[in-house]
Model the fold of this input.
Amino acid sequence: MAFDKYNLLKCNIDCGDGWKFLVDYILDIAASDILFAEYDLLVLEKYHNPNPDLLLERKEFLEKTIEEAPHIISVTERQGCLIIHTSQETPELRGAINMAMLVSKHICELCGNRATLNIKYERTRCRICNA
Done:
């Protein structure tokens, strides 16, 4: 069964490898409701002897949760920051996206090491990658 969170990614990732873990974190947040619904169904099937109607209800709920899950529609770098747009947002997802944007100003977009935002060139690079 195991839902693949990368199914929520509906675009190319247009940023350096150093920020990919931030995109992965956002995908985790976007998929969290699906994973909880999937876990709930798994526990019900495995450890309980559920009523067939209840089992069907949980399966339908999981399908609906997957359908309604936010999708990532844009991942880009702009002015040295990671910018992520989604099809819809929850407060948790909006907070995670804002956090990723702020943190990206201090992480090299190429290698993931500590870095600083170069305002002149609008890039966030570490000393090694900037050389």
